[in-house]
Specification:
The protein has 18 helices and no strands. By secondary structure, the protein is mostly helical. The N terminus is likely disordered.
């Protein structure tokens, strides 16, 4: 009974319900894409939600609830297939029938005291039922190559990643297989997200959305994936450069939030110069977005990005840089704070920002020194991105992207030197 109560706690239960819904949408996406089907993207999501709520009821009433729910689903699936084979309904499906079963379970869950969860589930059901045209339209715009890339992302992120050990191994204890492969997953995922954003939204909105997503997740991984994408037919350099520069601008928004949270007593001294850098990167990104809107629309012939090989190569490069950072720290120690910032900032802005802000909050580093350390890490990160673009990217991307990065570095250097 203790386990049942622990599982039924609202945050954990909502996480479980959300996971079931997401997995149902994922499998339903593939089934919706095939023409010969009875259940599609909405039905699979509803069935997954039905199974989760049935499991919740089973915690209170016993395992027979799950058996009865499985029997009900099997019966509906059989009836749906019979209707499809007889051809009595040209668009036979199970969505309404599953929704009826699901609302029965929602009512039972509400009576058991889980009213919030019942409300959330009922709202989700209503949204899924109402979203038939948008969801079906989205699936129709996804080609076989797009679906294949989504399957590769699922393999890398949901199958391989959870199996890897999440601990430091090897020389100097800096090799974490989980985190290293996570970079591979990020590159594949960000590249696919940027491609789909351009495909579904197009123009300025697609570039902006792709850049914001990339900056929130990993601007370095975004740069690597975009540089690789520039090699595909139909890719337009200004559009890809706009994504890279937008992601780089979002990084400093994230850094400002991290500093404010970790060093709340010193944010007045730390945030103004970081905010100036954030504003300057936003100006550069806005210019790049405007230029892309005029000259950089994606061609309809752009191929679906296939990032697995290049993502693995970048993962190996990332591991090599991590070892270089560890060796530098071993030789310089904490006294070489600027040297450490310049090296560690190459691949990761978060580590140097969070650690430096913590040192300021504890009184070990002066705010005037701290923001310069953080900014130096940001400039080093920009240099690393420029190197990735120069090595991996193609000429149409290299020129606009490097000009934008150079302008950003010059502005950041001016802030670093002349800020009082």
């Amino acid at each position: 009974m203790t386990d049942a109560l622990a599982f039924s706690a609202t945050p954990e239960l909502l996480k479980s319900l959300g996971t079931s819904l997401g997995l149902g949408l994922l499998v339903g996406l593939q089934r919706e894409w095939t023409r010969d089907r009875v259940a599609g993207i909405r039905t699979f999501a509803l069935v997954a939600l039905f199974g989760s709520l049935s499991g919740l009821l089973a915690l209170h009433f016993g395992g027979w609830i799950i058996a009865a729910s499985l029997l009900a689903c099997a019966s509906i699936a059989i009836l749906g297939n019979l209707a499809a084979m007889r051809g009595s309904r040209p668009d036979a499906g199970l969505t309404t029938e599953i929704a009826l079963l699901l609302m029965f379970v929602v009512g039972a869950v509400a009576v058991l005291g889980h009213r919030l969860e019942a409300v959330v589930c009922a709202g989700t059901i209503m949204v899924l039922l109402q979203s038939k045209k948008p969801l079906h339209g989205m699936v129709r715009r996804i080609g076989e190559s797009d679906l294949r890339e989504i399957a590769r992302l699922v393999l890398a992120g949901l199958v391989i990643l959870p199996l890897l050990p999440n601990r430091e191994l090897g020389y100097l204890g800096v090799l974490n297989p989980f985190k290293a492969w996570l970079m591979v997953v990020l590159i594949i995922g960000i590249s696919l997200a940027a491609y789909l954003a351009g495909k579904f939204f197009g123009g300025l909105r697609g570039n902006l959305l792709a850049g914001v997503i990339g900056g929130l997740i990993s601007s370095t991984a975004t740069t690597a994936s975009i540089a690789r994408r520039s090699q595909t037919a139909g890719s337009i350099g200004p559009s890809l450069a706009a994504i890279v520069l937008t992601a780089s601008a979002i990084v400093f928004v994230r850094v400002a939030l991290e500093v404010a949270l970790v060093a709340p007593d010193h944010w007045r001294e730390l945030l103004p110069p970081i905010g100036a850098m954030m504003a300057w990167t936003a100006v550069v990104a806005a210019i790049a977005q405007r230029h892309a809107a005029k000259h950089g629309r994606h061609s309809e012939s752009e191929a679906t990005p296939s990032e697995l090989k290049s993502a693995v190569v970048f993962g190996l490069l990332y591991i090599a840089v991590l070892h270089a950072v560890a060796i530098a720290k071993q030789h310089f120690g904490d006294a070489g704070l600027f040297a450490i910032a310049a090296i560690s900032g190459l691949t990761d802005m978060d580590a140097i920002s969070l650690s430096t802000a913590a040192l300021v909050q504890d009184g070990h580093v002066a705010p005037a020194t701290a923001w310069r350390v953080i900014l130096l890490g940001g400039l080093a990160n920009l240099l690393f991105k420029a190197g990735l673009i120069a090595i991996i990217g193609t000429r149409p991307l290299i020129r606009p992207a490097l000009l934008g990065i150079l302008a950003t570095i010059l502005g950041g250097s001016a802030i670093w030197i002349f800020w009082p």
